Amino acid sequence: QGTEVVLKAAAKKQRTVVVASTSEVYGKSDAVPFREDGDIALGPTVKHRWAYACSKALDEFLALAYWKEKRLPVIIVRFFNTVGPRQTGRYGMVIPNFVRQALAGEPITVFGDGTQTRCFTYVGDVVGALTEIVTREAAYGGVYNVGNIEEVSIRELAERVKALAKSASPIVNIPYDQAYESGFEDMPRSVPDLAKIRALIGYEPRVTLDEILRLVIEHHRTH
Ligand code: UDP
């Protein structure tokens, strides 16, 4: 509803709107890397994780309809695990969680068997892409992945955090049914295809996962 309010107001003044969408909309698609025009594969409504993906997908439909029907300049970006110093661990995000655990000497909690993968993207790389993309009229009415292509399993992430933090924490596996309230379903892999955003703005993520982890560890050590 918030998106609708914003689109409606922006349409009155023909102001550009950037819709912050998410890699979650690809859902359980196994067409990795995910292309913006690829099919999405959401789970059932009894698994509440899919409510988020579904509502973001509806935001995208709505924004694209405003572009088609009212020529409102809209740009849709799908973010893939944007991370960096000052990201809160309050919502259980994995990097701040692992770093806090590693520095406190507590067990590092890998959910499931840890073979699920993610591509973590440095917040500065995302900001750079955004400031560039909003200047391009060719982006209006388009959907763009913004991410990194360095794919890492969550098990490997735990090992890297442990090593970089020089931590003695054990790495433990927590079965999904203990890690999350029931009704949760994890994404097995999440990798962006960057061809479209590369072609538009020459986007190339610069900050590697190890650099990101060093920055986050440093931040947690000093705060
Ligand atoms: N995860 C984990 N331990 C944690 C927090 C998260 O193993 O303490 C896993 C989670 O199950 C998922 C991945 O790390 O497979 C990324 O989780 P996050 O919530 O950060 O992002 P998202 O699932 O939205 O990609």
Taking the sheet with the most strands, its summary is:
3 strands, parallel
The helix/strand series, from N terminus to C terminus, equals HEHEEHEEEHEEHEHHH
Strand order of the largest sheet: 1-2-7
The number of strands is 9
Task: Tell me, rounded to a whole number, the average pLDDT.
Answer: 96
Radius of gyration: 18 Å
Q: List bound small molecules.
A: uridine-5'-diphosphate
Question: From the helix content, strand content and strand pairing, which structural class follows?
Answer: alpha/beta
**Percent helix:** 40-55%
Low-confidence stretches: none
Gap from first CA to last CA: 36 Å
Query: How many H/I helices?
Result: 8
Label the overall shape: globular
Amount of beta strand: 15-25%
What are the defining features of this structure?
8 helices, three-stranded parallel β-sheet, alpha/beta, binds uridine-5'-diphosphate, about 15% strand, about 220 residues
Write structural notes for this entry.
The chain is α/β, with parallel strands linked by helices and 223 residues long. Helix content is 41%, strand content 16%. It is built from 8 helices and 9 strands. Strands 1-2-7 form a 3-stranded parallel β-sheet, with helices on both faces. Helix 2 (49-70) links the parallel strand 1 and strand 2. The protein is globular, with a radius of gyration of 18 Å.
